[in-house]
What we know:
The chain is of the alpha+beta class and 185 residues long. It is built from 3 helices and 9 strands, in the order H-E-E-E-E-E-E-E-H-E-E-H. The protein is globular and about 45 Å long.
Amino acid sequence: MKSLLLYLVFLQSLFTFAQSDTKYQIYTNKIVQFSKPARVLYQNIDATGNGSVEFTNARKQVLRFRVLNKKLQIQHGGIAFQLFYYQNDYLQRIENFDVNGKLAGERESKNEAAVTFTIEKPDLYLKKKKLIDAAEGNIELKEDHNEKIIRVELYDQNNLPIREFQPAYISSKTYWNYNVRMYWP
């Protein structure tokens, strides 16, 4: 009897988890650039339906968004989704999308809808990354964007380069934060 009760509790929790997975998975369909099938990578939703969800797929993409009262939350500038592209565990590109799945510029910044990252000095970045990893990100490094280690290119909602901000470089620590998705619009 006890094992039957445990089995039923297990099935109920499995069913509840599957429902919560599919409840937010419907939002992934709004972003056609995000390959399916997808699975939950990270989910932190409280009892009132507030929090964030990250999905991933076989193409090493990560799609994330926030919910408020169990509904898609729109961030500043009209951004609802962020899509991260990785290659060999290094961030290559971030795209911002509105609630309808269209590229959306981040109006609070330089109106960029997408950012690409190029590691121009991989050996130097790897050396700095090891320091940051060892401190789990809790380290203050000397600002190194002038060393031209990580180059970024900004794109507008039509996926055209925003020339007035090209080329630009960011620090190794800033790139590390983007790579581990510490930044929200």
